[in-house]
Design brief:
alpha+beta, 3 strands, Prevent-host-death family protein, 5 helices, YefM-like_sf, YefM-like fold
Length: 83
C-alpha cells in the first residue's frame, strides 16, 4: 500500500485507477491527514447472499432480522428503478 497527496492523486488519476485495477491500494492524504483510500472494487454482486437466503439454510431469528431490516428501509421513488 502506498500513500500520496491529493495533489499527486489529481495529477496522476488515470495511473492511480490503473494501479487499482491491478489490485494496488493507495491512501490519499491532504494536509498530512488520510482522506481517502483508492483501491480495487469488490467483485461480488450479492449473488451469494441471495443464494443463501433462497436455500432455506437461514434460521428463523436471522430471517426475522432480515425482514425487519427490509421493512425499516423505505424506498421513495428510487432513481435507479426509473430506468
Amino acid at each position: 500500500m502506498r500513500t500520496m497527496t491529493a495533489t499527486e492523486a489529481s495529477r496522476s488519476f488515470a495511473a492511480l485507477l490503473d494501479d487499482a485495477e491491478r489490485g494496488e491500494t493507495t491512501i490519499v492524504t491532504r494536509g498530512g491527514r488520510r482522506v481517502a483510500t483508492i483501491g480495487p472494487a469488490p467483485s461480488g454482486n450479492g449473488r451469494g447472499v441471495a443464494e443463501l437466503l433462497s436455500a432455506g439454510l437461514v434460521d428463523d431469528e436471522f430471517a426475522g432480522d432480515v425482514a425487519a431490516a427490509r421493512e425499516s428501509v423505505e424506498l421513495q421513488d428510487p432513481q435507479w428503478l426509473a430506468g
